[in-house]
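CORE FACILITY INTAKE
Project code: CF-77B
Contact: R.S. (postdoc)
Sample description: multi-component assembly, three entities in total
Requested service: structural model of the whole complex
Turnaround: standard
Below are the sequence entries exactly as provided by the requester. Do not edit them.
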Amino acid sequence: MTVARRASTWVPLAAGLGLLVTWEAVVRLRGIPPFILPAPSVVLKTLWDNLDSLFVSWLFTIKITFGALALALAGGVLLACAFALSRPLELALFPFAIALQVTPIVAIAPLILIYVDSTTASLLICAFIVAFFPILSNTLIGLRAADPNLQDLLTLYGATRWQRLRWLLVPSALPYLIAGLKISGGLALIGAVVAEFAAGAAGRETGLASRILEASFRTEIPKMYAALTLVVLTGVAIYLLTRVLSRALLGRWHPSEQG
Amino acid sequence: MAACSKRASLRALAHVALAALLVWPLLPAAEPAQLEHVVFATNWRAQAGHGGFYQALVDGTYARFGLDVTIVQGGPQVNNRPLLPAGRIDFLMTGNLLHSFDNLKNGVPTQVVAAIFQKDPQALIAHPGQGYERFERLKDAPVVLVAKDGQFTWWQWLKATQGFRDEQLRPYNFNLGPFLANPRAVQQGYSIAEPIYVRQQGGFEPVVHLLADHGFDTYSTLIEARTQMIGQRPDLVQRFVDASILGWYSYLYGDHRAADAMMLRENPEITVGEIDASVALMKRYGIVDSGEALRVGIGAMDPSRIRHFFESMVDAGLYRANEIDPEAVAAPQFVNKGVGLEVKRRLLGRP
Amino acid sequence: MSTAIELIAVDKRFESGVTALKGLSTTIWPGQFVALLGPSGCGKSTVLRLIAGLEQPTSGEVRLNGVPASKRAAPMSYVFQEPTLMPWASVLDNVALPLRIAGSSRSAARAAALEALEDVGLAERASAYPAELSGGMKMRCSIARALISRPAVLLLDEPFAALDEMTRHRLNDELLAQWGARSPTAVFVTHSVYEAVYLSQRVLVLGERPGRMIADLPIALPAPRAASLRLEESFLEQCRRVSHALEGGIAAGVLA
């Protein structure tokens, strides 16, 4: 590994560790009670003590997040291709896509929970709504960003619409799609958590958001932090996954992955 | 002659001014002594069940006790609980003793200083004619709508002792729609509130099952304070408790229109009719002024009753026996002194 | 197989109001290598796009072997000023693209592409990606791609303008070698007099916008071209001739 590569692994780790050490020191030295600001050691212990129940909720949140992300990917890409191929379709449907994007999920989550019987389905829908627009928008831009000279070349070679899509538009759109995915990955997680907060989901089908709310109501502040830690870890994991995907698909040729 | 009288009047004026200048510092201050500012957070939007506190505010009782009180509402998506130990608020309204037991269990340093409701109005309501007239049938309902606060307290008790299951549970977002639309649905309700709304919006009288009648006999609308404040400023706590108790007597037995007006301003979603109906129900069910409160005043707390409630919760499996000392959740020294009984006698016209 | 190209009284006015070409008429014979020379903005690229059928004339006609260009009856290739390679594909797959679009299987197209790369000396870089190649290599790749489909018409729009002089000279020779193998009708747009004279058999000089033919000059120089020709007097004489025409001076040589 080059020096640069090593640095990119160790520097963030060291910074994170430094933050945790400072946090622990401040809490201990100033005697801050755990129901105001728990020390990292207390949070970790609480996490360990409650691992079995938190783990089940964590799996549920992960399920919703990745389910919604998959739906957003499929929906966003398909719709973008449809829009790229048919301008009237785009003009007709794009306003709805925008409306979905700007509607605050906090407001509609309770509504969706009323109309849809299954809690899991409602949360999937909410997280999907939050995550799908960046993929749609970015992919559409990417499809349109194809090199015009290559477009002319394909015309000259007599390519059909599908050939154009396959040989030119989709590969051109890939970097944009990946950029959208990087955004949507985090949004899917946020959507899954916020939707659960806003909808006040209950019972068996619940994720980390419900654990956080429950801990908040019982003034179990360290447990709130423990659940939040899992949320953060999930977010970081998603980010790293999209990094790996980006390197795999674009590493050889796209400027964003060079140097 | 004109000049002479002018000089005379000027001299008189000067005398008065000099006198005023000398006497000025000795006059008592035109303003009263500074009131102490305290923040009291409720656990819901303003409603008749909070009436006594708003009464003490609008009729100057808090001010008479040297308190400048700000009442902060709770609400469906609001959780004021962590604000008390964090020092952001001074007094907190709590719905039941389970919150207090949890606090003690988690080392959160707060205690209950008064119990305004001798009975918890928490109830389950259902459509009539669906077979829910008997409480035992409720556990077979396909859908039970419970809000966040209840999910982590009395719902756990219902599951442990009354046969309810998480599969029935649906979030109650304080919208009557889902309940009204589904005749088989059951939802939580405040026995002094929801039935009134259901009658108005749904046009029918719901079946009401008080949890207190089936073994959930906690105190309710408790006033909690930080242990530190109880130790260091017992006078402040006492003043707030006394003033609140007096406010409640005035609200229940006196003219409560001014308090209602303030609550309507804070929460435009309720109406005067609903408040009046709710007050009537509070009296009919003996929510506030019943049992021990009749003898030693509103807010009465009996530590043995707290212990008894804790033991029934241990039986329900919510806590382990000896996990905490239940009587330690309360600081009963501020109540049980007969405060306000005189006011009640006067308001009711009794000798 | 090679195609005759006819422009008959072609006008081209764009929606923006710009008149790119006015009254342009000429005939290019099958297999001829023609240079299109003129100052910037005189419409040279527009002529190429009209021939390719990517644009339509506002009035007049463009015909390939008698068929209107818009029908795209003849197989054509286009080489742009930028190499215009697909950055996400290897050199081999880039060159194979025209064959894949025409329906060849992947293995057949790749085999043919490898041969084409050998012809331009890029076979060892077949699995490299365009980002890893120099400008000159990318252009050779582009030319290989242009010729793999055995076009009847080869259109080149200042392909070497962005390269340094030594590479340009080398690629000039390589282009002539590749072109010589099958001799499609070639139209080469350039603003370099030297390049026009070196490469072509006939130089068409366009005037400033709106583009009008101001000279049609056959180039009498030995073929195939030798690199040493660049320093010989006969070459420089032709260059002078063309230069004068370009400066809109005395038309040397008549429209035959």
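Facility notes:
- Chain B has a mean pLDDT of 89.
- The beta strands of chain B are 36-41, 67-72, 91-94, 110-117, 122-126, 143-146, 169-171, 185-190, 207-210, 220-226.
Invoice: internal transfer
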